Amino acid sequence: MISIGLKKIRPILQFNLRLYQSLSKSTLNEAIEKLKPLKGGHISLVKDEASGIATITLEHAEKKNALSGQMMVEFADIVEDLKLWESGKGLILRGSGDTFCSGGDLNTVKNINNPCDGLLMSTLMHSTLNQLYCLPLVTVTLVHGKAIGGGSELTTATDFRVFSNTGETSFVQGKMGVVTGWGGGTRLVHLLGPRLALYLMTSCKKVSSEEALNIGLSDSTVPVDSRYEDTLNWLHQLIKHDSEVINAMKNIVIGARNLTLEESFLNERTLFSPLWGGPANMRALKKNVKHK
C-alpha cells in the first residue's frame, strides 16, 4: 500500500528546485553580502492567520517604491518565510503610497553598475521571484500607480494581477540600454505569448489598467479609494477551500508549468491521493455540498 501524508503537499514540491539548481548557494550569499549594506526603504510582511492571506508591502514611497539592495535581501527573506507558512492560502503584493514600484533604487544601481555586480543582483532577484512564483499560495499583485521597469517584472511573479483605475505598467528596460534582469521577460512570454511580450518590451509601451485587462495582463480593475479592500475580497473568492486543498491546486499548476506531461500527471495523482478521504473531503461528503 502506498502511504502519502498530508504534510507532503504543503511544501513546494521537489521538482521546483530545478528552477534554482543553477543558482549556487555561494553566489546567492555573495549577492546578499553585496546588496545588504545598500540601505533605503523597507519591505513588510503581515500574515493574517484567520484568513490565510499574507500581504507584502513595498515601503519606499519617497523613491516611488524603488528597491534598494537592503529591500532585495528583505524580499528574499520574506519569501523564505512564506514557504514555511503551513496555514497560508493567499498573498497580496502591493506598494505603499501612489506608486507600485519603479524598479531598482538609483543609489543602489550606482553602487553595482558593472556586469559582475549586475549578475549578482540579477541572480538574487531571479531566485526570489522564481520562488515567489512557485509558492503554494494563490498570489496577486495589486498594481496601483506606476509599475515601471523592475516594477513591471515584479507584477509577473504572481498568479494574478489586479489594477486600480490609475494602475499602469511599462517594460522600459530598453530605454535604459538593458533587458529584463529579474526574470520578467520569460514570465511575460508565459503570460501573454512571445508576440505580445516582445511588443511590450521593444515598444516600452505604457499599458493602462483598461489595456491590461483587454490583453489579459490584468484580471480585474478596482477603484482607487478601496483598492486594497476590494483586492482582498477578490482574493477571498478564490481561497474558500482548506489550505491543504489550495496548496495542492497551486502545486498542480506549478507542476504543469515545469514538468513533462507524464511527470505532471504523476504529480497530480500524488497530490490527489492524500486528500481523497481526508478531513476536507469527508466534511464535504457529509454536507452533500457538490450540487449546492
Automatic annotation (TrEMBL):
Annotated localization: Cytoplasm, Cytosol
Gene3D superfamilies, sorted: 2-enoyl-CoA Hydratase, Chain A, domain 1
Keyword Lipid biosynthesis in annotation: no
Primary location group: cytoplasm
E.C. number(s) listed in UniProt: 4.1.1.94
SUPFAM superfamilies the record matches: ClpP/crotonase (SSF52096)
Keyword Lyase: yes
Recorded GO CC terms: cytosol
One Pfam family in the UniProt entry: ECH_1
TM stretches of this protein: none
Top-rank lineage group of the source organism: Eukaryota
Gene Ontology BP terms: fatty acid beta-oxidation
Top-level EC class as recorded in UniProt: lyase
Annotated keywords: Cytoplasm, Lyase
Catalytic activity: (2R)-ethylmalonyl-CoA + H(+) = butanoyl-CoA + CO2; (S)-methylmalonyl-CoA + H(+) = propanoyl-CoA + CO2; (2S)-ethylmalonyl-CoA + H(+) = butanoyl-CoA + CO2
One annotated GO molecular function: methyl/ethyl malonyl-CoA decarboxylase activity
Protein function: Decarboxylates ethylmalonyl-CoA, a potentially toxic metabolite, to form butyryl-CoA, suggesting it might be involved in metabolite proofreading. Acts preferentially on (S)-ethylmalonyl-CoA but also has some activity on the (R)-isomer. Also has methylmalonyl-CoA decarboxylase activity at lower level.
Recorded family membership: Belongs to the enoyl-CoA hydratase/isomerase family.
Protein's UniProt name: Ethylmalonyl-CoA decarboxylase
